[in-house]
User: Fold these one by one.
Assistant:
Number 1:
Amino acid sequence: MQSFKRYSTVEYIRLVKRGQAAPFDKHLWQRSFHDHVIRNETDYRMIAEYIQSNPRLWHKDCFYEEPSHEP
């Protein structure tokens, strides 16, 4: 995974220098993020379930803020 990140970052920087992609500030990849390679059908199903159900839990997240209802 690290090789992929390094290669894709180098390629993205090349595109930025040619004016074909938007510049990024400091990091292209999200920090403190757990990468996981999907290795089999079970992995795929567990990750798909997480992606589908996770938005329902957003209100329990420590970074959640109640939306403003101002016009």
Note: The chain has two helices and no strands.
Number 2:
Amino acid sequence: MPPAIPTPGPASDAVPSPSPTAPHGRRPGLVMPVLAFCGMVVAVMQTLVVPLLPHVPDLTGASPGAAGWLVTITLLTGAVFTPVLGRVGDMYGKRRVLLASLGLLTIGSVLCAVSSDIGVLISGRALQGAALAVIPLGISIIRDELPADRVLSAIALMSSTLGIGAAIGLPVAAVVMENFDWHTMFWASAALGLLDLLLVLWIVPESPVRTEGRFDLPGTLGLTATLVGVLLAITQGSDWGWTSPRTLSLFGASVAVGLLWGWFELRTASPMVDLRVSARPAVLLTNVAALLIGFAFYANSLVTGQMVQEPTSTGYGLGASIVVSGLCLLPGGLAMVALSPVSARISASYGPRTALALAAVVMAVGYVVRFFTSHSLWLIVAGATVVSSGTAIAYSALPALVMRAVPVSETAAANGLNTLMRSVGQACCSAVVAAVLAHVTFVADGRTAPTLHAYLLIFLIAGGTALAALVATLFLPSDRAGSGRGRLRGRAGGTVTVSASVTAARESA
């Protein structure tokens, strides 16, 4: 690969070095660990209540449908707040918005810890979901503040925290459920959120990079209405009926509002989402791949625990405890931690497009393993770990693909949109998995249970989705195209080569 030759961009895109007198710039070596820890805590919150869900009706007196909202509301608020807070961070300060997101996480955790009322619990989970914006904000701060030789590896770890936290959250929550009062896990999450706030205040500097213009309130409302309508229809469609008037009305209204929102965004001077940039193949296909990867990743998390907990009377279930089922995903979480720097090296040596293609292949292979090894606990764990390994490489490569194609001043917003696409993929996966497990059933020992073929069908669908992500990746601009021109910039003007796409993005921005 040709050596990287720094190419000066427009003055507005230069990344200034932190002021030598800035009080928060004295510990640059701790910025990455602190941001990664914040991302891990936020990601743990996304899966924290999954082991609790079957017990919520007995613990709170709520209906099973209301209990399901403890997951649904987090998905909805995360999807809405992630791109919005990313844009706000680009405009008004990423550290400032990062602190606000962690504050929402802490307040939401306290609400859940002090109450057993389902309404209060749902409200607290809504605030916890809003904190998902920490991931793209952290990635943007890394790009602005770290030296160039550390940018790719740091971004890889920060992005992977979304999967690492999800894998760790399930067994931790299961252990708490088995040994302590269920409110304990919310008190623990509140303490971790407060610790995150203090660490960010102490360690993380405010980024000097800003996007000019006014905040697009109409665009924000339009995006919110569109996302809520689509995701609500997807997550509730299996309960309401996919052809019910309520579901079809939500889909129809979302399409209408989305078209009107797009028309407005193309005509406003400072849009919430720059659709012209988002429509470029380098950005659009990366977001499509993110949606598909999110789907393929989430299937692994959703079905592994349930599958090993199925009773032995089904002929395939292992009758495992809730703790054992949670621990099945822990090796995958550890693999994601170990593979984050490996993925960064792959992206640095061969390009993030190559890394993402490799990730999609690994995930597909993992589902092939899962398809043929569904009767042994250790082989189930092995297959789940292979899928998680591919997810680690994918989640590490996606931000690098986004940032090589957008202006520096739009990093948080663009990564927020990419994280949103992963969330949409997870929502679609949740709906598909619920539909398959609910309809491909049989009666075993007097109870209705999913058949083994239901799980195998899910593995086929998820593996096919990973291959679809591979196809989308292969249509991305080549990693070799214009190498030596486009770069990710690090602190003090350093550069690390990824592609020429960012240069074109700057010229047209």
Note: The longest strand covers residues 441-444.
